[in-house]
Each structure stands twice: as structure tokens, then as C-alpha cells.
Design brief:
The protein is of the alpha+beta class. 39% of the residues lie in helices and 25% in strands. It is built from ten helices and 13 strands. The strands form four sheets. It has a six-stranded mixed β-sheet with strand order 6-5-10-9-8-7. It has a three-stranded antiparallel β-sheet with strand order 11-13-12, covered by helices on one side. Strands 1-4 form a two-stranded antiparallel ribbon. A hairpin with a 2-residue loop joins β5 and β6. α2 packs across α8. It is elongated.
């Protein structure tokens, strides 16, 4: 019976030593997915917390995960000692002193994670620089909803202003709302497009152009085109218009778009948080601008005294919990894209 136990122990040690050679590959699927999930959840919480902080005029802090190094160490050791004839004679076998075995094993998991705070030039480049208009219009040209993108990422177009948040909180101009409606209907009809072409004046740079198609269109789409021309003060005869970065222009063949930075977008998102009225009344948080007629909120962030169940993202700030509902697809889509 004892010899069987000895054989089993040796078999266990051999299996353990063989398993060490392939342990790293076994953990790859598990660890990669676990770290991916952890980084994603951490990003959502950090972003939501900074949105809330901006509503309360607090300092936002962004820390990126710079590197993740997962290190494993598994050591197995074994020893065997014995004597052929304990006490000088064979005696009765098996003798308690005839043979002995020993085994030891250690497993060490030492993940190393580095964090990089966004400060200085990295902060300015990442969060304070406005989105180039060409990037925004490329998204529209590939099928993204023009009205939602402009509602989130554009502050002004040819002098017509979108919603403002913070200390200068104000609702969007009625003409901006009408402009978004016209732009979306024209986009859905396929009667508008964007292209990049050489700048004939400079001969070196490229310029972005918005153009109306020349094919026959429905009367209601034609009316939306005329409405867009009127709101943006564009020439009634031209079919293409240069797009530049800026708040306004005095030319009728140019569309000036003042895009927002990532920090401005987060600030606007913060104005959609439902917070207790006394926080605004006491001067602890910025007031929200009045909602514009015909424009649904771009997102909704709720607050309450307890952590919600099934939230897409939830953080605690001061004495309240703030969250995005997992069943609110519009809010989740806007939140994820920021």
C-alpha cells in the first residue's frame, strides 16, 4: 500500500513540473479578457467622475494606464532520502525509516501596472484641442447621424450657437436646432456630401468642401436645403462651400464650424446630470440651461443616495451616486464616443 502512495506522489510531482512549462499560455485567454474588462470599467468610471466634477466646478483628473505586465512564477521542488537496511539488518519491511519523500511548491503572481497622468502638453493636446472639422465631417460622410454629431461636437456654425454649459450656460439658438433638423433630413436623402480637394489659391494645402448633389431631389428636401442656406447665410446659387474652422465668416461661400474640444464636450455632458436643486441654489454646482424645444437631451445622467443596480457606469461623488442607465442606448452611445 505504501509503495502505491509513493508512486502516486511521484506522478503528481511529474505532472506539476510538466504543467509549469505551459502555464503561461493557459493564462493568456483568461488574463487578456480580464484586463480588458478591468481597463474598460475603469475608463468608464473615470470619465463619468470627471463629468460630474465639471458640473461641481471641481478639478478633473485623467490618468491613463500606460503598461500592464503580468508576471507569474511557479516553483516545485521534491526530495527523497532513505537507507537500504535501517539498523544494519533488513528487519520488517516496510520500515518507518526505510524511505521518505518530501515536496514543496510556491506560486507567485506579480502584475505590474504603470499609470500616466495627463498633464502639461499631453493634457492640452488630448483634452483642450478642438476636434478638426475634417474628422467630424468624415464621420458624417461615412453614415454617422449629422444632427447628433453636431449637437455633441460643434459649438457654432456661421455664428449660430449650440448649447453652452458651465458659467455661461445657455440653451442653443433656435436656428441651430432648425439647422440640425435640416442637415439630418438632407443627409438621409443623400443630397449632401463632403470631399477634400487641393487648395487652388495656395497650391500646397488641401481644403474641405461641403457640396449639394445636382440630381433631382424631392420638394421637401429642396426646402431643407433652402432653410440651411438661409440659416448659415450661404449663397442661394452655389452648390459647394469651403469648410473652415471658426465661429463665423462674412463670406457666403464658406461654412465656418467651431468644433469643441474633449473638455468642452465633457462640460456640456455635465449639464445633463440630474442633481438636487439645493446644490444649484447653494452655489455648489452650475445650473443647467433650459432645454430647447424639439431637441432631446443628448444623454441622461441620474443621481441618488444609493448605488443603482445594473448601471452601465456608476461612481460616487461626495454624498451621492451618479450613473448612466444600462438601458439608455442613446446615453451609452454618446458616453462611449467621448
Amino acid at each position: 500500500m505504501k509503495m502505491r502512495k509513493t508512486s502516486a506522489l511521484w506522478g503528481f510531482l511529474a505532472a506539476g513540473l510538466a504543467g509549469c512549462a505551459s502555464y503561461g499560455s493557459v493564462t493568456l485567454d483568461r488574463d487578456r479578457l480580464d484586463y480588458t474588462s478591468a481597463v474598460a470599467n475603469s475608463w468608464k468610471q473615470q470619465t463619468l467622475l470627471n463629468i460630474v466634477k465639471l458640473r461641481y466646478a471641481d478639478t478633473p483628473i485623467f490618468v491613463d494606464v500606460g503598461q500592464i505586465v503580468a508576471g507569474y512564477q511557479w516553483q516545485v521542488g521534491a526530495n527523497a532520502t532513505g537507507t537500504i537496511f535501517p539498523g544494519g539488518s533488513p528487519g520488517n519491511l516496510p520500515s518507518p525509516n526505510f524511505f521518505s519523500l518530501g515536496a514543496a511548491g510556491t506560486f507567485t503572481d506579480r502584475p505590474t501596472i504603470t499609470y500616466t497622468p495627463l498633464t502639461g502638453s499631453a493634457f492640452i493636446r488630448t483634452l483642450m484641442t478642438p476636434i478638426p472639422p475634417v474628422r467630424l465631417l468624415e464621420l458624417i460622410d461615412t453614415g454617422y447621424a449629422a444632427d447628433l454629431l453636431f449637437l455633441v461636437a460643434v459649438q457654432q456654425a456661421n455664428g449660430v450657437s449650440n448649447r453652452r454649459a458651465g458659467g455661461r450656460a445657455q440653451a442653443p439658438d433656435p436656428d441651430f436646432v432648425r439647422f440640425l433638423t435640416a442637415l439630418r433630413r438632407i443627409q438621409d436623402s443623400g443630397a449632401i456630401g463632403f470631399r477634400v480637394e487641393p487648395d487652388k489659391e495656395s497650391g500646397k494645402r488641401e481644403r474641405l468642401v461641403m457640396f449639394f448633389t445636382r440630381e433631382e431631389i424631392e420638394p421637401d428636401v429642396q426646402q431643407e436645403r433652402q432653410a440651411l442656406r438661409r440659416i448659415l447665410h450661404l449663397s442661394p446659387d452655389r452648390m459647394d462651400f469651403q469648410v473652415i474652422y471658426g465661429a463665423d465668416t462674412d463670406r457666403d461661400d464658406v461654412v465656418a464650424i467651431q468644433t469643441r474640444s474633449a473638455m468642452q464636450i465633457l462640460g456640456v455632458m455635465s449639464s445633463f446630470i440630474s442633481i438636487p436643486e439645493e446644490h444649484v441654489r447653494d452655489g455648489r454646482a452650475f445650473p443647467a440651461p433650459k432645454p430647447a424645444a424639439g431637441v432631446p437631451p443628448i444623454m441622461a445622467i441620474a443621481s441618488g443616495p444609493t448605488r443603482p443596480d445594473g448601471a452601465f457606469a456608476a461612481v460616487q461623488y461626495r454624498d451621492l451616486w451618479f450613473w448612466v442607465d444600462d438601458r439608455d442606448l442613446r446615453s451609452k452611445g454618446v458616453f462611449t464616443s467621448c
